Recover the amino acids of this structure.
């Protein structure tokens, strides 16, 4: 794909070569996330970060990624704080914001809304999550993390086995990740969800049609045996028709150290897009796993910065100029040692 000036709306846009390009640029940019050097390659550029749904990681890391490349960030964080609350269309908002920005990241509760917005935008738009549909940057950072974790164990993405656990119906991170993984060869997908929260049938069929082994489980213990990766998700409460219905699924699947020790192969990598639901009646990923070295969730969030920097660098066509605009960091930074 041609990244320059283009929107990033769906993982369907990517092939394996494109993914390799994003990851190579992300690797290159590690020195900036690790605060070893700073770069001003996007000095003067403006990102409009439009988040019309709750977000911590995605919004902050897109913003920080843009800042780390030297650009400035403008934000709107709620529909009720923007003119959409006055009945403005996505079309008008896109036309207006195009004049204020060099690139836009948008999250919105409706599937397809970011594509509709992008169609009216003059500047590149990156999908930060459109309802239950897609979350391409999350899938890229997840895959980047999977690659790193497997490499550490002498394995590859081809031939990988992964258990996807929890709300597979509404989880957009799962939907995008499955489609990206399907580009590789000979995978085993264990789809582990309560009855009623299975992955959309079309997606399961697509994985099978692409030659992968797909097995559905309604019981967690059986689904998490003998896999390389566990990808746990929270119940996407906000997508259910009612809170009552969402509550029916709360706390059904809980991964904790005991379950892990009893049922998982040694060194099974534990992932989660976060946020994990830490309320007592949910806890799909228990805090007692925090010291487990196979818990990769905070390596995922660190990698999110690299992958999002890479997307900006590619879309705005500065990937080859980043180092030419760089200099050493002068201040004390606690980020240097762990990330480098
Ligand atoms: C995910 C999302 O928003 O889809 N969060 C994130 O961006 N890291 C997953 C979730 O909210 O459960």
């Amino acid at each position: 794909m041609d990244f320059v000036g283009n929107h990033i709306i769906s993982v369907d846009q990517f092939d394996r070569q494109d993914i390799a390009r994003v990851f190579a640029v992300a690797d290159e940019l590690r020195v900036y996330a690790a605060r070893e050097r700073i770069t001003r390659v996007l000095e003067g550029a403006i990102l409009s970060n439009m988040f019309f749904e709750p977000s911590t990681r995605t919004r902050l890391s897109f913003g920080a990624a843009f800042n780390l490349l030297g650009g400035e960030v403008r934000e709107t964080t709620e529909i009720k704080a923007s003119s959409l609350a006055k009945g403005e269309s996505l079309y008008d908002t896109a036309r207006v914001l195009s004049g204020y920005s060099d690139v836009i990241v948008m999250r919105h509760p409706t599937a397809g809304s970011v594509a509709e917005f992008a169609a009216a935008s003059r500047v590149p738009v990156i999908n930060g999550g459109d309802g239950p549909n897609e979350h391409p940057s999350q899938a890229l950072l997840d895959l980047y993390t999977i690659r790193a974790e497997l490499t550490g164990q002498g394995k590859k993405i081809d031939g990988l086995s992964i258990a996807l656990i929890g709300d597979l119906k509404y989880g957009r991170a799962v939907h995008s990740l499955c489609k990206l993984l399907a580009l590789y060869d000979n995978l085993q997908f264990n789809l582990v969800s309560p009855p009623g929260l299975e992955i959309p049938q079309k997606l399961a069929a697509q994985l099978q049609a692409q030659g992968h082994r797909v097995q559905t489980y309604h019981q967690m213990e059986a689904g998490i045996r003998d896999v390389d990766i566990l990808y746990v998700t929270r119940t996407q409460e906000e997508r259910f028709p009612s809170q009552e219905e969402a509550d029916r699924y709360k706390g059904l699947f809980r991964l904790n150290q005991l379950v892990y020790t009893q049922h998982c192969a040694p060194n099974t990598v534990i992932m989660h897009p976060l946020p994990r639901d830490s309320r007592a009646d949910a806890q799909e990923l228990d805090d007692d796993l925090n010291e487990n070295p196979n818990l990769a969730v905070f390596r995922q969030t660190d990698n999110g910065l690299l992958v999002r920097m890479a997307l900006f660098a590619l879309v705005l066509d500065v990937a080859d100029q980043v180092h030419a605009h760089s200099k050493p960091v002068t201040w004390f930074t606690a980020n240097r040692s762990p990330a480098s």
Q: What stands out?
A: The longest helix spans residues 297-315. The chain has a mean pLDDT of 95.
